[in-house]
Amino acid sequence: MSGHSKWAQIKHKKATTDQKRGILFSKIAREITVAARAGSVDPATNQRLRAAIERARSFGIPKENVERAIERASGAAGAESLHEFLCEALGPKGILVIIEGITDNKNRSLAEIRLVLSRHGARPADPGSILWNFEKRGSFEADLSVTKGPALDDIELAIIDAGATDIKKDDSCWVIESTPSQIEGVRSALASRGIAAKETAFVYHAKTSASPSPESEKMLHDLVEALEGLDDVQNVYTNSNGDTSDL
């Protein structure tokens, strides 16, 4: 009996993982379609599309899926019904929350979000009442493991001159941020030194952060996880300076 139970748990875990993977693939495909529709279908001239394609590759999404998502932006059925939306909310203990999404039915999406918020001690906020505390930034990672000594200082100065506003260093991996309009210049400064950017994203960064208690941080983690589990939610940002990913 215990063996059957263990196998059932393994199957359930795999099903949950497969389900999350399927949802993730769908979300990235939507982002590719919307990015291509909003600009050029050529990733060389559309930085948002290029970032979405890079993300698709990092998760192993097949090339034909990416091509199909781009084709939808060129007039395929269903593409015109996709719309972007942004919600603002007050999370547990007053934590600020920004929710980005893509949907074919905004009323349905907002109703689902409101339900999740109410179940996790949060509530919708008036437009603009939360967003003022966030700014949009371009962000990407760079692997500098092959670069040593004085060359690192030269690279850091070069990307700052190109517009980098923040650099987080974790051994040889740097996470670099800039304004969206300057992200290409920063990437080019690295590329000219033989360093490729990866995991490019355009994110909301809190201007001021909050330090919730461990209990509130756990509540926030559960809220973010529930929101990210919704099909129409693309990204969730908060002004918490804690890391909820391992809670």
Automatic annotation (TrEMBL):
It is found in: Cytoplasm. The keyword Transmembrane does not apply. Residues 5-75 form the TACO1/YebC-like N-terminal domain. GO terms for molecular function: DNA binding. SUPFAM superfamilies: YebC-like (SSF75625). Signal peptide: none annotated. The keyword Cell cycle does not apply. Pfam families: TACO1_YebC_N (PF20772), Transcrip_reg (PF01709). Residues 83-239 form the TACO1/YebC-like second and third domain. Keywords: Cytoplasm, DNA-binding, Transcription, Transcription regulation. Belongs to the TACO1 family. This is Probable transcriptional regulatory protein A2847_01915.
